[in-house]
Every structure is written in structure tokens, then in C-alpha cells.
């Protein structure tokens, strides 16, 4: 924010959040655990993921605890560095979609990875806040599930939400 935006009369135009966590695997292994639908289905999309997270791919995610397969648009994919996705919904500020960016930063000479997930475009309404807070919880859970799965082979989501 600049000085004008931090003043008393500043208006918040959209809600966004960032969550992060360290994974004890290389950026390549960690990126693949998110981009590859077979791996993502092991620890996150309890109903399964279809399509690799890369532009042009037909991607859908399904959660057994939140029925209904929904489309995910892969906007950008930089191997081992970044994935940007969007999907439709309600209570989004700048468009009819929210945008989620996954960044994979090498740590400890590439032996570990800092995963940063930023989601934006939620409206500054009660519905937007509920959606943003809910997704913040969801992405934090996803990071914990990713860590447990990729480091220890444990599926944290099994029976967690239902």
C-alpha cells in the first residue's frame, strides 16, 4: 500500500490472503505434487483431480466433502517455480473469478521448498469475507496435507472434513 492507501479514508477494494509453509523436498518434487493430478488426488482433492495444471489443459477438481466437480483454469505454469489458477464463483471483486498463485522457492540450496499461496479478488462484503476466510483455511490445510503426504506418505484429509 502507498501512503494514500494507508490513510484514514483508504478504501479496501478487494480481499486477499497469503499462506506459506516449508516442505522438505526439492522445488521440482513439490511443484510436481501440486501440478500432477494423480499426486494432487492423493492428499488434496478427495474426489480426484483431472488434468495437469498447465495452460490449455482441461482441469477439474472434486472434493468428496464438498460435492461437485468444478473447472479450474490454469493461467500460468513455470516448472518448479509458479502455478497460477482461477475459477468461477461468487463474491469476487475484480472479475467473476478468484486467482490463486502458488510459488515454489528453493531453500537450503534447493533441498527444501518454501511454498507460498496467494489468493485474491474477493469482494469486501460479508460473503466475500466468508469466502476468503474459508479458502484461507482450505489452502492452509492443503499445505499441511501436502507436507504430510510428500514427506511421510500420510493422507491428512481422509475423514477430516466428513
Q: Going across the biggest sheet, name each strand in turn.
A: 1-7-6-5-4-3-2
**At the fourth CATH level, what is the homologous superfamily?**
START domain
Percent of residues in helical segments? 25-40%
Gyration radius, rounded: 16 Å
Number of strands: 7
Per DSSP, the total helix count is 3
Please, what is the average pLDDT? Answer: 89
Shape: globular
Strand content: 35-45%
First-residue to last-residue Cα separation: 40 Å
CATH topology (fold) name: Alpha-D-Glucose-1,6-Bisphosphate, Chain A, domain 4
The biggest beta sheet reads:
7 strands, antiparallel
Oligomer: single chain
| Unreliable stretches | none
Number of domains: 1
Question: Which class do the helix and strand fractions yield?
Answer: alpha+beta
CATH architecture descriptor: 2-Layer Sandwich
Task: Return the string of H and E elements.
Answer: EHHEEEEEEH
Amino acid at each position: 500500500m502507498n501512503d494514500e492507501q494507508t490513510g484514514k479514508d483508504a478504501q479496501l477494494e478487494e480481499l486477499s490472503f497469503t499462506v506459506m509453509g516449508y516442505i522438505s523436498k526439492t522445488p521440482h518434487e513439490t511443484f510436481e505434487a501440486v501440478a500432477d493430478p494423480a499426486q494432487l488426488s492423493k492428499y488434496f482433492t478427495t474426489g480426484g483431480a483431472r488434468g495437469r495444471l498447465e495452460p490449455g489443459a482441461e482441469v477439474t477438481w472434486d472434493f468428496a466433502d464438498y460435492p461437485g466437480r468444478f473447472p479450474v483454469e490454469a493461467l500460468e505454469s513455470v516448472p518448479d517455480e509458479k502455478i497460477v489458477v482461477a475459477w468461477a464463483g461468487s463474491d469476487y471483486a475484480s472479475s467473476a473469478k478468484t486467482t490463486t498463485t502458488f510459488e515454489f522457492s528453493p531453500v537450503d540450496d534447493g533441498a527444501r521448498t518454501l511454498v507460498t499461496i496467494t489468493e485474491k479478488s474477493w469482494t469486501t462484503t460479508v460473503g466475500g469475507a466468508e469466502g476468503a476466510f474459508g479458502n484461507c483455511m482450505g489452502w492452509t490445510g492443503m499445505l499441511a496435507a501436502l507436507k504430510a503426504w510428500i514427506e511421510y506418505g500420510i493422507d491428512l484429509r481422509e475423514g477430516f472434513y466428513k
